[in-house]
Every structure is written in structure tokens, then in C-alpha cells.
Amino acid sequence: VRIESALRNAVERDEFVLYYQPQLDIKTGKIVGMEALIRWQHPELGTVPPGRFIGIAEETGMIVQIGAWVLRSACAQNKAWQDAGYGKLRVAVNLSARQFGAADLIENLASVLEDTGLEPEYLEIELTESLFMSDITPAVDLLHRMKALGVNLSIDDFGTGYSSLSYLSRFPIDVLKIDRSFVADITRDANDEAIVTSIIALAHNLKLAVIAEGVETSEQLDYLRRHGCDEMQGYYFSRPLPAREFEQLLIEGR
Ligand code: G
Ligand code: G
Ligand code: MN
Ligand code: NA
Fold it and tell me: pTM to 2 decimals?
């Protein structure tokens, strides 16, 4: 089965599922949010990791339809968990550059929020620096329209792109997510330490919150806590989990 043709039918055939990875407040240790991460369960191909299909979905434009499904499902799930009394968590959804360019992005966001009843402050949209590289003017306008809906905006994989830092002061960003490649060696590599502490300082000076990704050890967590990082996400606490298992975490945490 060719991935591309199989991908075309995957939304209608209900083959996608979302996994959720918890994000914790480093000071309190409490779960404050989760990142929704797509998984594809194909009847013959088995579980296809996003690394094998997101690129194809982007090239073919199918990411627009898939991304709309992700957004709607993640918001509906978050609202259901809030209604079940698990507290008010924020759900983060990855937005690809292709979706960002889609004409109906704002309309779609607004209708998902309205249909699911999720208050916009509990949705975070993860953007990548690649969005800010080329022509900056349409991006500024779009980001302001997204912000006007009341959602949070974060920069994913921060530090790995090639864009100018000037966009940080001009764009209505709320959160920086430190790329996991910098976190991996913070307790061993002085350069990565310098990069991570600088990103934390940069974020705080700009009044942004900062999340460390890919936290795998207690040493990394201690380091990040000592240096004032706000939130953490990574295998040290939990891998991305199917909804049912994530819900178990929420029940235990109550
Ligand atoms: O979950 P995992 O680490 O395997 O994800 C691999 C990559 O796929 C990551 O870069 C992640 O951002 C991306 N990804 C996962 N889910 C989504 C999604 O819903 N939309 C987009 N655009 N990318 C996603
Ligand atoms: O590009 P993005 O940041 O959206 O990708 C998130 C990806 O990172 C997910 O596929 C997730 O499975 C992966 N991930 C999450 N936590 C860790 C971790 O602690 N270590 C590693 N190596 N990968 C992680
Ligand atoms: Mn992400
Ligand atoms: Na990332």
C-alpha cells in the first residue's frame, strides 16, 4: 500500500488517533497541559509514525484536512476532560506551515472553539520558526487574528530555526518551547547550558513563558528548575499516551 494513497482515506476511515503528552509546572510538579500528537493506525501498515507521513501530508496538502481533524479532536477531548472535573488544562496542537497558509484558518479555529465549547485560553497553537522566515507581513497579521480569538501561541523547537530573533518582539507570542536537542546535554555540555539559560532569560525578559522539551532525567529537571524554567515535557515524567491512559494520570493526580 502506498502511503500517499492510504493517507487520502485515513481521515474518513477514522484511522488517526491522538496521543497526549503531559506538560508540568516545574515548581509545583502539577500537570498544567498536554501536547496532542497524532498517530496513524493503518489496518495493513500498522502504526505509522508521524515522521513517515507528516512530510507527505504537507507536500500533498493533505495536512490541511488532517490538521483540522487534529484541532477539533484535541479541543473536544480537552473540553470533555474539563467537564469530567479533571481541572482546566491547556491543550497544545502543532500547526504546520501549510495550515498556516490556508485561507480558512481563522474561520476554522473560531468554529472549532465554538462547536466544542472550549474556552480559547485552554488552547495553544504550536508554530515553528520556519513560518517567520520568508515574507513576514502576512504572518504578523495572521498571528494577531489568531490572538484576537484568545488562544495562546507558542514557538516549537525554539533555537533550531534560522529566522531572525526580531520576530519575537513584533509577534504576539506567549510561549517558547526549548528544543530537546539543547536539553539533552544540559548537564554535560557547557555550550548547551549556555544556550538553555539564555533562552530562559530571553523568554522571561520578553514576558514569555518557557517550556523545556525532551526532559529525560532528574538531573535535567533539577537544572531547569534551578534556572527558572517554567514548564517541562518529556519521557522523564511520561511519554505521549493514548487518551485513556492520560486520563488515568489525571485521576491519580487529583
Ligand atoms: O510524536 P512524535 O515525536 O513521533 O512526532 C514526530 C513529529 O511529528 C514532531 O515533529 C511533531 O511535531 C509532529 N507531529 C505530531 N503530531 C502532529 C500534528 O498533529 N500536526 C503536525 N503538523 N505535526 C505533528
Ligand atoms: O516537534 P515536536 O516538538 O512537536 O515533537 C514532539 C516529539 O518529541 C514527539 O514525537 C514526542 O514523542 C517526542 N518526545 C517527547 N518527549 C521526548 C523525550 O523526552 N525524549 C525524546 N527523545 N523525544 C521526546
Ligand atoms: Mn510540538
Ligand atoms: Na519540539
Answer: 0.96
